[in-house]
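User: tokens in, sequence out, please.
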């Protein structure tokens, strides 16, 4: 377990610090599971309160689930416009405060407990007030969270979009998407590839269409950057391009030289860069150059 590394947090009470644990830490893994099972569209978080080696309270920032986060639409930065969370999503509170509330509801003694938070890189003042009021001794975040979850300072999440249902086998597009993801991983720790996420039309044909829509919609809406292949016509990609525009995400579109591209895709106002690639290597070089700008 490591101490905080001179990170400039938006808020930190005097005399308090933040400690860090790795991904495989038992309690951080439990907090991650909570975040993944329920949470907000913009930045799902989970927390567990631990005392004497046992979890005594659990919490998430879940509220009424909506497809497009109002803070995303408003362009809110970290720490801003939390009133949207209550007004639109009916969120009761952040994960830290909810974990404390859960422990108290169960009649557990919180004095001297430790809190583990997954999904964010700092704790706001109301959450610190709740933790200090409950006698929480230590606060633990995931190692590297200042980069992984600091969406205002880095590309927090990248979505790799491209045709899947009807594709030319000779182009081996799924392999290309995975290569793009590897390039992106040099700049972002959270890269989502749909055909590897459990909704591939070939590997996962039994998944209900509504499940596919909701999952991919939320993944696009929560991403900062969408990299989309537009060389092969795709209803799914067209929908994702429009979701990106509505949620104010950046778009990079690409195609291979000689392919015809829809003017609707080319004219999407969310598109920041267009790449016409000679081949996969040319695509990787051009994409790397663009990502360095971010």
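Assistant: Sequence out:
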């Amino acid at each position: 377990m490591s101490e905080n590394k001179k990170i400039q947090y938006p808020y930190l009470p005097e005399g308090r610090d933040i400690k860090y644990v790795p991904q495989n830490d038992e309690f951080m893994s439990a907090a991650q599971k909570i975040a993944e099972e329920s949470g907000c569209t913009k930045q799902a978080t989970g927390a567990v309160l631990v005392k004497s080696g046992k979890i005594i309270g659990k919490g998430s920032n879940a509220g009424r689930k909506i497809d497009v986060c109002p803070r995303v639409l408003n362009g809110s930065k970290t720490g801003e416009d939390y009133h949207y969370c209550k007004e639109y999503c009916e969120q009761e509170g952040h994960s830290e405060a909810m974990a404390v509330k859960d422990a108290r509801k169960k009649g557990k003694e919180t004095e001297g407990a430790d809190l583990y938070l997954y999904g964010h890189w700092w704790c706001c003042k109301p959450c610190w007030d709740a933790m200090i009021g409950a006698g929480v001794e230590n606060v633990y975040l995931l190692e590297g969270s200042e980069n992984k979850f600091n969406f205002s300072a880095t590309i927090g999440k990248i979505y790799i979009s491209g045709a899947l249902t009807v594709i030319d086998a000779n182009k081996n597009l799924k392999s290309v998407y995975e290569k793009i993801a590897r390039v992106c991983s040099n700049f972002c720790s959270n890269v989502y590839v749909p055909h590897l996420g459990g909704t591939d039309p070939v590997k996962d044909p039994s998944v209900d269409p509504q499940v596919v829509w909701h999952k991919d919609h939320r993944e696009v809406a929560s991403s900062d950057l969408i990299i989309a292949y537009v060389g092969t016509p795709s209803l799914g990609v067209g929908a994702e391009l429009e979701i990106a525009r509505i949620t104010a995400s950046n778009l990079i579109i690409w195609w291979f030289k000689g392919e015809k591209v829809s003017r609707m895709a080319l004219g999407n106002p969310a598109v920041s860069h267009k790449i016409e690639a000679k081949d996969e290597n040319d695509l990787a070089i051009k994409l790397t150059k663009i990502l360095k700008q971010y």
